[in-house]
Amino acid sequence: MRATSVVVVGGGVLGASTAAHLVRLGAAVTLVTEAGPASGASGRSLSWLNSAGARSDAYHRLRTIGIDRYRTVQQRLDRHDVVRFDGGLTWAAPGESYRERHEHELRIGYDSVWMSREDVARHVPGVDPAAVHPEGAVLNPGEGWVDLALLVDHLLAEVVAAGGTVRTGAGRSLPTVRDGRVTGVTTASGEHLPADAVVLATGPSVPRDLATLGVTMPDQTPIALLVRSEPVATPLRGVLNTPRVAVRPAPGGSLVFDAGWSEREVRVLDDGRYDVRDSTVAGLVAEARAVLAGHPVLTVAGVGVGPKPIPADGDPVAGAVDGITGLHVLFTHSGATLGLVLGELTAWEVVHDAAHPLLADFRPSRFLTAGG
């Protein structure tokens, strides 16, 4: 049955993108989110737009299409504070090499340029070439970044302008099911929002939310930690992914940065709150300064911490949930790169009640089970 009324649960980039694409297809859309727009994983993402490194052909193809959609949005918005394509630079840790990675990227047609330290000094502004691995670095000129909070605001404004409804601060809202078919969503206050279809895009909460329906979604969700600096004078334009820190510019002249080691130092307390040590933030700031030309002083403006959604096998989960007619789910680590294309393809599947071939390898059914 083609869906004409849809409730989207989740106010991050996946939910906002799906809602915007649904209204473009003529569906009546209500988006509900627990707190504010982009207040969850989308608000603490480095949001690097890329398909670097090795992954399956299907995943690489989906990511490159996702990047293409951002180029379209950049032209449509004509706002370079939302989406930028100034490339990405990465280098290996001591004792490792990225030569094989570079060769792989060349073989699959991914724009990849090998650079010596001297090349970096000449062509990549804002980077201290002395911080680069002696063997050199990989420049991916087609990569970029997106400010997800600004993008989500734009997408939700489009939903409202088209007659859709956006309800923030609704608390935990869950799909309701009767006789194997979704009937809508119930908010934290007990209000029922009827719908032909529901799209569940609650980021790291997806496994927990599906469990209320007897559906198991295995995951490997860790904690994310993102630090934002006050505005700083630096010519850095692209995204840096280095052994000890990843850094990118942000709107207003600030920088955002994260690292795997710093995330592992975050402690989850018994009451669910997070303990971020001052030494962890200071260490992350020091690592960011070390890779920037001139080692500018970085003053911390804010710290974002919380779970980062990653499915059990690392690949996206997108599509209809077997055993519950009308329920669709989006659950992925690469929410920034895939945000626009997954919203587009999910909206198409919901409205047309059909499966899109680009999502064939990412169905929930590959490891998802429903209880009686």
Proportion of residues in extended strands:
15-25%
Shape: globular
Would you identify the CATH H-level superfamily of the largest domain? FAD/NAD(P)-binding domain
* First-residue to last-residue Cα separation: 23 Å
Strand order of the largest sheet: 6-7-5-16-17-18-15-21
Instruction: Give the beta-strand count.
Output: 24
Mean pLDDT: 96
In CATH's first tier, which class of the largest domain applies? Alpha Beta
At the third CATH level, what is the topology name of the largest domain? FAD/NAD(P)-binding domain
Largest sheet: 8 strands, mixed
Put simply, the count of helices is: 9
Keywords:
alpha+beta; 24 strands; six-stranded mixed beta sheet; eight-stranded mixed beta sheet; 2 domains; FAD/NAD(P)-binding domain; 372 residues; D-Amino Acid Oxidase, Chain A, domain 2
